[in-house]
Specification:
By secondary structure, the chain is α+β, with helices and mostly antiparallel strands. The protein is built from four helices and four strands; from the N terminus they run ααβαββαβ. Strand 2 (141-146) and strand 3 (149-157) form a beta hairpin.
């Protein structure tokens, strides 16, 4: 039966191949004209403007005489350049305070959480949660239930590097744990 099928497919594909061969472009005809020149032709360019007048000119510093063996030693040390002490002026200080106040009200940011469990069994998600909490009490855990699926997330990480570190810690409890990007809490403490 298999051989019959292959023969039928081959027999039916012959007209298709013949049609393709009939519509294929003909072989290129040899040209008697000179070959096309592919070298780059020089392009006429505008004369370059003299931009030397726009360049800044710096005065050369006066050379410092080198003290000879019999030269008197200077009695006063060289003047030190004063270091600026007030780099932040009052207007900038006010803007920084306003920005700090605005940032205090931000509670969420885009970050990462480690999804430790994804499944249908409530008892299993609670067992894994207890294991993670007993081992890492400082990690925040989140259980979400969207019927019929339970999800257990651990941690609030702002960078992916921190999330990978958290993932490596919980891999012993859940080998299939993954990192997911989502909104995370910034201020855990009030």
């Amino acid at each position: 039966m298999n051989l019959r099928f292959l023969n039928a497919v081959l027999f039916l594909s012959l007209p298709l191949l013949a049609a393709c061969a009939a519509t294929a472009p003909a072989a290129p005809v040899a040209r008697t004209a000179a070959p096309i020149d592919t070298t780059r032709k020089p392009v006429a360019t505008a004369p370059a403007d003299d931009v030397a007048k726009y360049r800044p000119v710096f005065a050369q510093p006066a050379p410092i005489p080198s003290p000879g063996p019999n030269a008197p030693k200077p009695t006063s040390p060289a003047k030190a350049v004063p270091v600026p002490t007030a780099q932040v002026n009052a207007q900038l200080e006010q803007r920084l305070r306003d920005q700090a106040f605005t940032n205090q009200n931000v509670k969420y940011a885009s970050g990462y959480r480690v999804r430790v469990y994804l499944g249908l069994e409530r008892e299993q998600v609670m067992n894994i949660r207890r294991q993670v909490i007993s081992r890492y009490p400082d990690e925040t855990d989140y259980i979400t239930f969207k019927q019929p699926v339970y999800r257990l997330y651990v941690g609030d990480y702002l960078t992916k590097l921190d999330a990978v570190r958290g993932l490596l810690r919980v891999r012993q409890f859940a080998p299939k744990a993954e990192i997911e990007a989502m909104q995370v809490l910034l201020n855990k403490t009030p």
